[in-house]
Amino acid sequence: MSEAGDSQPKFAIQRVYVKDISFESPGAPETFRVQGKPSVNLDLNTKNQALGEGLWEVNLTLTLTAKSEDEKTLYLAEVQQAGIFEISGLQPEMIEQTLASLCPSILFPYARENIDGLIVKGTFPPLMLAPVNFDALYEQAKLAKERQEASVQ
């Protein structure tokens, strides 16, 4: 392979899989009689790790907690949706952005479908999560990190 071929940007999805999945309804069956609209909190987290030459695992965790008006937990659903991605030929900053933005954007629809399936199988009404702008989240995190570094100096 020529040197020019080595520097060509490459991005490929190797695998998308569920790393961990859980559903709890601690107050069932009493929670099925709760009237009113529950409050739902979404906690979203991403992390990544290098697996070897140009291979990365990205893990997107969605945790949904639904509570009744009297603050009792109706259900807790969590999905760790992961993927293995081949990324090479990019500058370190572009690799960082790809891992923090593009990869989670690819994983999110799978995680959203799995979360919705868990909730429906728990016999609660379906909950379709709105799309997430991972580019904006990446930019916010980058700005926050830059501000924190500037304040330390």
What would your notes on this structure say?
The chain is built from 3 helices and 4 strands; from the N terminus they run H-E-E-E-E-H-H. The longest helix has 30 residues, at 92-121. Residues 1-5 have low confidence and may be disordered. The chain has 153 residues and is an alpha+beta fold. The protein has a 4-stranded antiparallel sheet with strand order 1-4-3-2. It has one domain (9-141): SecB-like (Bacterial Protein-export protein SecB), CATH 3.10.420. Strand 3 (55-67) and strand 4 (73-88) form a beta hairpin. Helix 2 crosses helix 3 (134-152).
> Which secondary-structure class do the elements indicate?
alpha+beta
Per DSSP E runs of 2 or more residues, the count of β-strands stands at 4
Contiguous low-pLDDT stretches (5 residues minimum) are 1-5
Helix content: 25-40%
Mean of residue pLDDT values: 91
Q: Look up the CATH topology.
A: Bacterial Protein-export protein SecB
| Major β-sheet strand ordering | 1-4-3-2
Largest sheet: 4 strands, antiparallel
Question: Helix and strand layout, with pairings?
Answer:
Layout: H1 3-6, E1 10-24, E2 39-52, E3 55-67, E4 73-88, H2 92-121, H3 134-152
Antiparallel strand pairs: 1-4, 2-3, 3-4
Helix pairs in contact: 2-3
Give the structure's gist in a few sentences.
With 153 residues, the protein is α+β, with helices and mostly antiparallel strands. It is built from three helices and four strands. The protein has a single domain, classed as SecB-like (Bacterial Protein-export protein SecB, Roll).
